[in-house]
Amino acid sequence: MKLLYICHRFPYPPNKGCKIRAFHTIEHLAKHHDVWCATFVDDPADMQYVPAMKEFCREVVAIPLDRLRATVRGAFDMAIDETLTEGFYRSRAMRDAICELTSRVKFDGVVVFSSSMGQYARSIDAGIKIIDLCDLDSQKWAAMANRARALAPGSTTRKPADSPNSKPNSTTRLMRPFSSANRKPTIGSEIVQNFT
Fold this sequence. Notes:
alpha/beta
């Protein structure tokens, strides 16, 4: 199969959480399929590793990410009730690069690493589209917001989301099946299993 892997951070060197996961997913997929990678580069020093990624990918599209501009885009999107992360990673350069790539290659599948990069998969004509929700941020942000409300002046009756007396919200109920106590496979391992 011809697979396009789209991620928000350059996956090499695999020395941080999201880079480790993305790299090893690409490494595994490349054993069985032809993989192309489209990714942002938020550290200019990582550009030197493009040749290393080409050992696993037919082609690597590495788009520099200007963090200041990305932050402004994210803040603007938040102000108009859109998501900060989707705005942060919205890039004409990335969109154009993926359009150019898909005009040359007919992909059988697209794997997107993190929800913020899903915007680039929408228009790709591929039989399989998978999004790796590597970090269910909504649960983390909901818990942080509830803790902040509980600590705010004048809010003595509110309890944080993780308080024993708090009622589970829909996000908490969604997370239960993926808790470590249940030992279910992670979404990432399911992706790898589905493509082998």
